[in-house]
Amino acid sequence: MSEPVEPTVSRPRHPAVIAFHQTRLDDAQLRIADAITAFAGSMPFVYIHAVVFAAWMVFAEGSPWPTLTLVVSLEAIFLSTFVMIGQNRQAAFQKAKAEHDFVEQELELKTNTEITRAIHTLTTELHRRIIIDDGTRPS
Length: 139
Hints:
Low-confidence stretches: none
Distance between the termini: 74 Å
Order of helices and strands: HHHH
Radius of gyration: 31 Å
Oligomer: single chain
Number of strands: 0
Mean pLDDT: 83
Largest sheet: none
């Protein structure tokens, strides 16, 4: 018996998120960097390196340390670059989202201020009509 499949629910996405992902999809270099970063941050990456380095130390060379140190150092340089690319990407995303949110909040504040002023105007006019036009005072 197969398990029931839940319908996919489409959730609204933040406009900054949509724009960010579209930019990432449009740039081949960024897609490659994302793929490398995703793999480098996974356990298969760790397992592969443990096996390769162990094999290298045991079977490849009689004195593996100088070459192995060079290879590991170069790999660390490149991986740290990919980590920095990921951090820069995340910072750019947070900046775009914050700027979008600021604009939206300012618009909402302006709208709320206009609504509050309209309510005040209507309340004042209603009060004026009740007191002045009727010639009566509320008790």
